[in-house]
């Protein structure tokens, strides 16, 4: 086997390890399925009647935003896992094995991609149950689903860097949510940007989450896309490039290489 083939094999083994960890820790399963479902029910049935979205039912406005938020936070399992492996010395054990060094990170982020697929199916199922419907051609919907997974993959690298930087799994979880949670709300995910105070609107308009949500919403329900689709792709690729580089640098530093 070539070094590339060995690297792919090691990546798949570690991805499988990360996926098998979830059923053994039900709290992780709750984190990336139950919490988003609660957000859907809360916003649709409690806040939805008070939020005006002209030309679009609120449920059709909301579900793309909830899905993007869910994809964004799907990588928290990576942050917790990497931080825990560092704390327990498992990363040092990996160093002593004849395996690809890159597989530790690529395996984690690949596992996130698999769990994001599950999460996407769950969120769409809940969305359909509360009245959401696609209102665009099949090609656009498929492109929207692919964009959701690309966004999720990008933020897996953000959480990988957080997990390698935080002092403990608890700190990784707290830091990730503290940093990203406000950004998802100061966007077009839950309310129209124009409904926000004038001083906050420029922040929301220039928030990458706004471009991502607007892009997915345009692909799912046919709202005007403007520049949002290509901006969402650029943001996702840029975030991947930056945080993958930072995560690799931090990983090498953490293992003393």
Describe this structure in words.
By secondary structure, the chain is mostly helical. It has one domain. It is built from 11 helices and no strands. It has helices spanning 3-24, 26-47, 58-73, 76-88, 90-96, 103-129, 138-165, 169-185, 201-205, 208-221, 228-254. Helix 4 (76-88) packs antiparallel against helix 6. It is elongated and about 60 Å long. The protein starts with a helix and ends with a helix. The mean pLDDT is 81.
Write the layout of secondary structure elements.
Layout: H1 3-24, H2 26-47, H3 58-73, H4 76-88, H5 90-96, H6 103-129, H7 138-165, H8 169-185, H9 201-205, H10 208-221, H11 228-254
Keywords:
257 residues
Task: Briefly summarize what is shown.
By secondary structure, this protein is mainly α.
Radius of gyration: 19 Å
What is the N-to-C order of secondary-structure elements (H for helix, E for strand)?
HHHHHHHHHHH
Count of helix runs: 11
Helix content: over 70%
Q: Report the average pLDDT across residues.
A: 81
User: Mind summarizing the main beta sheet?
Assistant: none
Q: Return the domain count.
A: 1
- Per DSSP E runs of 2 or more residues, the count of β-strands stands at 0
Proportion in β-strands: under 5%
What structural class do helix, strand and pairing data support?
A: mainly alpha
User: Roughly how many Å apart are the termini?
Assistant: 26 Å
Oligomeric state of shown chains: single chain
Low-pLDDT stretches? none
Q: Please state the overall shape, judged from the principal axes of the Cα atoms.
A: elongated
């Amino acid at each position: 086997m070539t070094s590339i083939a060995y690297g792919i094999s090691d990546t798949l083994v570690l991805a499988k390890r990360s996926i098998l960890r979830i059923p053994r820790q039900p709290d992780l399963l709750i984190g990336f399925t139950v919490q988003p479902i609660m957000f859907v029910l809360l916003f649709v049935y409690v806040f939805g009647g008070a939020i005006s979205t002209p030309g679009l039912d609120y449920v059709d406005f909301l579900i793309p935003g909830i899905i993007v938020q869910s994809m964004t936070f799907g990588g928290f399992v990576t942050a917790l896992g990497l931080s825990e492996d560092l704390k327990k010395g498992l990363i040092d054990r990996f160093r002593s094995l004849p395996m690809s060094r890159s597989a530790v990170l690529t395996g984690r982020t690949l596992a996130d991609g698999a769990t994001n697929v599950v999460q996407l199916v769950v969120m769409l199922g809940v969305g359909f149950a509360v009245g959401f419907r696609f209102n665009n051609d099949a090609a656009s919907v498929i492109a929207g689903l692919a964009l959701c997974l690309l966004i999720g993959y990008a933020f897996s690298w953000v959480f990988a860097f957080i997990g390698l930087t935080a002092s403990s799994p608890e700190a990784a979880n707290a830091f990730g949510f503290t940093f990203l949670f406000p950004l998802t709300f100061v966007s077009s995910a839950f309310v129209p940007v124009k409904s926000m105070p004038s001083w906050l609107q420029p922040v929301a308009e220039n928030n990458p989450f706004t471009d991502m949500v607007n892009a997915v919403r345009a692909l799912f329900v046919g709202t005007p896309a403007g520049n949002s689709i290509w901006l969402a792709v650029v943001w996702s690729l840029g975030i991947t490039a930056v945080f993958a580089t930072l995560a690799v640098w931090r990983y090498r530093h953490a293992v003393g290489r």
